[in-house]
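Ticket reopened. Same input as before:
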Amino acid sequence: MIHNATASPAKWRLKRPSIIPGFGLTLGFSLAYLSIIILIPVAGLLWRTAGLGWSGFFAVLTDRRTLDALYISFGTAFVAALVNVVFGTVVAWVLTRYNFPGRRLIDAIVDLPFALPTAVAGIALAALYAPNGWVGSLFMPFRIAFTPLGIVVALVFIGLPFVVRTVQPVMEELDREVEEAAATLGANRFQTISKVILPGLTPAILTGFALAFARGVGEYGSVIFIAGNIPYVSEIAPLLIVIRLEEFNYAGATAIATIMLIISFVMLFIINLIQAWNRRRYGNV
Amino acid sequence: MSEDTRTALGKPPAFRNPADERPLAKILLIGLALVFLAFFLLLPLVSVFVEAFRKGWSEYYEALIEPDAAAAIRLTLLVAAISVPLNLVFGLCASWAIAKFEFKGKSFLITLIDLPFSISPVISGLVYVLLFGSNSLLGPILKSQGITILFAVPGIVLATVFVTFPFVARELIPLMEDQGTGDEEAALSLGASGWQTFLYVTLPNIKWGLLYGVLLCNARAMGEFGAVSVVSGHIRGLTNTMPLHVEILYNEYNFVAAFAVASLLALLALVTLALKTLLELRFGAGAAGGRH
Amino acid sequence: MFKFAPGLGRRLGTRLGAVALGLSLTAGIVAPAFADSQLLNVSYDPTRELYKDFNVAFAKYWKAQGGDDVTIRQSHGGSGAQARSVIDGLEADVVTLALESDINAIEKSGKIKAGWRDRLPNHASPYTSTIVFLVRKGNPKGIKNWGDLVKGDVAIVTPNPKTSGGARWNYLAAWAWANEEYKGDQAKIKAYVGELYKRAPVLDTGARGSTVTFAQRQIGDVLLAWENEAYLAGAEFGKDAFEIVVPPISILAEPPVAVVDATVDSKGTRKQAEAYLQYLYSDEGQNIAAKHFYRPSKPDVVKPELLKALPNIKLVTIDDPIFGGWKKAQPDHFGDGGIFDQIYKPGK
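Engineering reply: fixed in the latest deploy. New output:
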């Protein structure tokens, strides 16, 4: 399924020969562990969905309620991931390039969304962005919490570390001599950034975007406190899954989960393929 | 990350490196980053601590030593102590196989490792319920053997492992790919065994990335709510982890205690990150993959 | 390869061994916790305070009767989610949930024997409750009855009936009033209930989430709440901020209790579990329930001052022909595509 450009066309080989040992052992263990923890349980999920049959699955997929919930989930996750790509890259840049008071503290709290339970994050954000909250009151009469905008706020919070932490290591590795060379050749700073630095960062930014997006689509704990949860307006797909479970409709719940899973998986796969292609093109390995 | 690539903001440089931004642009960028972080990270963090200390230190302390809270803290530490090493071993194996070799289906395998990111936490707990529940294929068999997985520690560990599965591998794969295979090939050709090569050549190269992956994995393992909530059974003092205990306290309108336990989780993350910074300072920053 | 594998294999083996040991140890720690004299009561959210008191009282009573030392563990959560956990293997000795339909679902899985509703007095509901209004101090919008909820610009806070048991009682109470008001005209009843939910800016997933939205976030003019939750909210968020308005007609919410036969038979705790639920109907049990603002099923054994807070109003039951019992009302109103789903129109 993946055509390795350098593999000889005459003979199909799983792996390119290498003198480095341990391929069998490490890949074997990884696959075994992957199967036990992820693949078998997910297969169980798909099997449960299969109980619906094609027509049942199709009915869930084409239901207006499902479609609207998916649209809200994917839409808000997309906007949040975009916000994170822009500001996350700026944050990563500021953290790697500049020295200013409190830099290390800022560096540390970027990981906060991983550590804080999502429910706590949701409660704290809802309190802040509610019409009577510290931030929410600044924007009145424009409402943030309990609208789709509230969902975006929660998802920006959840996804930020994914972007910063994938972009930051690559930025640290950037060779400053290349920038200096660009400057010597007459490029102004803007040109250097847009023509020299950003292209090198693109794969990392793309990965960060994909991870933040995928994570945002499925997020539940923090969103339900700030979303408003009105059907067709601010009802996210994971909430619809919970609602189906409350109806003891497991197949309906797993069907929505499967749809979300497939979309996210395909998107992550495409981005990983782009990465692999990128690596080969620039001959990094 | 070395200091020489960074310019201090305070003193105006006599000569501006053409590969630097103008000071004004710098200040604007820093300002932009700080404002953004203030709204999305700092304020929520501050509000958690403000709520936690609303009634002073003694209430805060009381909330943490209360037996059910202490049980929740112990359980959370236990779960992290089991699931983080598991994912650490996996992360090392997977990144070795993926980064040091070229093989078919690599991108597909990486995507499979990413899979837990794309599954809603609501579902990542449910998959184990579908697998081990009373109405599943395995559930009755395990029950007849006296093995309890769901609504007990093993189920909570499984759900946590699932959610934190990609973190170490995700951190190591790009780093190891970037470093290539030259160092290892050199070591091997000089007569080192595979194990020695890994231990003395690869490991020092990736130690910071590894540490970082472990810290993120640990933070997420302790903070996971959705997936664990499905498999925990919410038995007070027995199967409630810290995040679940926070929810219980919040639902009892005991806001001070709820935010106190939550602030402990935030603190834990800050302490581990402070530790990482300390280690970096002590053993030389920039080791995080500077070798090519 | 051969040099590499044994070394790593050994280390790996030790690590895996350590992990396996860890897992078996933890399993060992958990197992004895389910000893014979332990009961697990799986309940819904608003009963935390009630059972905290009741468990102490029962343990004392059971000991005095010559029974063993019984400790009761509590699990609280959304009523439906708790029922699902029991179905999927959570070893509850007794369930004390918000809705009959949730226990019916457990019955369907075979863990509770049929006829549980007749095994204890009063449809297996030792205490009942109803739905009242919590309004802001001074009742600025003048809300006295269900009809006032859809007047002017009144905004209503109620949880999502799809995810919260309490919210279903809210919905049914509104329906019961409308049925009386519009003399059973289905179209008018639906229009009223639809208008009611259009005035809800937030549908929280649980009853306590709604209380926080109303009390702390200052959203809405009126909160539809369990009677006991309304009193508790008043106590927690300051009595001066809110007023309770009891409408002249509401629903009789009957939160049922049942012994989980499958668990007690395998654990051998039937005796304790049955005594535990029986004790809810005792004088002491009834008084504890009333103290927490639940309506006792035997008001004659309860101290009169406790009953003062629970005024007599007209209460419609779920078994009333307009609903036809939970087995009919649940799919009709709250099922996928049911009447509640029809309120919301796509593509706003």
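The domain at 57-282 of chain A is CATH 1.10.3720.10 (MetI-like fold). Residues 1-8 of chain A have pLDDT under 50 and may be disordered. Please confirm and we'll close it.
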